[in-house]
């Protein structure tokens, strides 16, 4: 994961040096354990390793999503959504063996990127099959359903790094990140 983050850092230094310089340091093992305890989960090794490299990524829209949550933002987002955990789905969906279809929201879905409209990208710690634990899912508030994104955080960030390296992102100096950082917004090119 350190090599993957080194790729992301190098690309951001080229695209948006101000954003690269403001990347937060990694979380401590104690901070990671505290977040896990607050949510009652054990994060997959690749997630822990990623957060040890950087505790979030302000000012960068990953794909069509918003910035990578810090651990604190992850826990806050999870707490807010967990009140709906276990609610029945809005509509009948066929069980597909990929994502739980018997609930509208699961407490085992750990939001790590918000999309800004109520949708979130989650680490799935409650899949219907144990071998899928840690997969990345995109949950939509419209219909309260989720779809598969990636096998895990490493694969998800690999695609992001490849897009950065392929020059698919740009820094928009006229638009600033809305997270209070005042950083230029790094986003996909039109």
Notable characteristics:
single chain, 6 strands, two-stranded antiparallel sheet, globular, alpha+beta, 6 helices, 34% helix, four-stranded antiparallel β-sheet, 190 residues
Describe the model:
- The structure is a single chain.
- By secondary structure, the protein is α+β, with helices and mostly antiparallel strands.
- The protein is built from six helices and six strands, in the order αααααββββαββ.
- The strands form two sheets. Strands 1-2-3-4 form a four-stranded antiparallel sheet. A two-stranded antiparallel ribbon has the order 5-6.
- A hairpin with a 4-residue loop joins β3 (135-140) and β4 (145-150).
- α3 packs parallel to α5 (71-82).
Run of helices and strands:
HHHHHEEEEHEE
Q: Termini distance?
A: 29 Å
Order of strands, main sheet, comes to 1-2-3-4
- Rg result: 16 Å
Secondary-structure-based class equals alpha+beta
Give the low-pLDDT segments. none
Q: Roughly what fraction of the amino acids lie in strands? A: 15-25%
Helix content: 25-40%
The shape, in one word, is: globular
pLDDT average, as an integer? 90
Number of helices: 6
Main sheet summary: 4 strands, antiparallel
Number of beta strands: 6
């Amino acid at each position: 994961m350190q090599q993957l983050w080194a790729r992301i850092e190098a690309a951001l230094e080229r695209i948006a040096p101000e954003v690269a310089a403001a990347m937060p340091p990694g979380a401590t093992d104690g901070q990671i354990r505290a977040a896990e305890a607050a949510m009652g989960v054990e994060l997959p090794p690749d997630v822990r390793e990623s957060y040890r490299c950087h505790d979030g990524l302000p000012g960068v829209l990953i794909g069509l999503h918003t910035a990578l949550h810090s651990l604190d933002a992850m826990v806050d987002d999870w707490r807010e959504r967990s009140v709906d955990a276990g609610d029945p789905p809005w509509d009948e969906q066929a069980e597909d063996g990929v994502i739980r279809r018997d609930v509208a929201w699961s407490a085992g879905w750990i939001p790590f990127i918000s999309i800004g409209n109520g949708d979130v990208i989650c680490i799935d710690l409650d899949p219907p099959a144990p071998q899928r634990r840690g997969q990345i899912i995109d949950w939509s508030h419209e219909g309260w359903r989720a779809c598969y994104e990636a096998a895990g955080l490493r694969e998800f960030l690999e695609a992001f790094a490849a897009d950065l390296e392929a020059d698919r992102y740009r820094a928009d100096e006229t638009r600033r990140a809305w997270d209070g950082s005042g950083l230029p917004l790094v986003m996909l090119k039109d």
